[in-house]
Amino acid sequence: MKSTIRRVVPLLLSMLMAIAATTAAAVEKVNINTADAATIDRVMVNIGPGKAEAIVAYRKANGPFRSAEQLALVKGVGLKTVEKNLDRIVFTGGAAPAKVAATKAAPVKPVAGKPTAKPAAKPAAKPAAPARTASR
Q1: Bridge partners of 31?
Q2: Is 90 helix (H, G, I), strand (E, B) or coil?
Q3: Cβ distance 88 to 44 under 8 Å?
Q4: Distance CA 18, CA 128 (A)
Q5: Which residues contact 89 (CB under 8 A, 6 or more apart)?
């Protein structure tokens, strides 16, 4: 009986520590449409009090955020900041934020037989300077 308890106790302790570590690693979420600036500042990464106030002001002026891309329109909040916080942002109704779309345009592929751009115009030639004559 003692040997069974000695085997079970370490196993139970290991399981409890694993559960505690998983719970501690859980990311706190913020509803970007209802949170105050202090909560946004506390929960989001790379968002300080000034940016948090800007987010609240933008929301008051433009209505609730519907996407992560819209959050990136707030002055001082870029796409990289939004991407770092995707797992922390919740929108009204608890919907998960959409993946932030790339902002760079896709390269245009040239069509066979057609030039991709107009050739640059040649600069106008300077008029020749008058020839100097030796006068004496």
Answers
A1: 90
A2: strand
A3: yes
A4: 86
A5: 29, 30, 32, 44, 68, 71, 82, 97
Name which of 1-15, 67-81, 82-96, 97-111 the model is least confident about.
Answer: 97-111
Nearest CA to 96 out of 58, 73, 67, 69 is that of 67
- Residue 18 in this model has a pLDDT that exceeds 90: no
Closest CA to 71 of 15, 32, 25, 35: 32
Question: Is residue 9 predicted with pLDDT exceeding 70?
Answer: no
Residue 81 burial (CB count, 10 A): 17
* Model pTM score: 0.53
Helices then strands, each counted (H, E), the chain: 5, 2
Q: N- to C-terminal Cα distance for the chain?
A: 129
Identify the three-state secondary structure at position 19. helix
CA 58 vs CA 26, 33, 53, 70, 135: distances in Å: 28, 10, 9, 10, 77
Identify the three-state secondary structure at position 80: helix
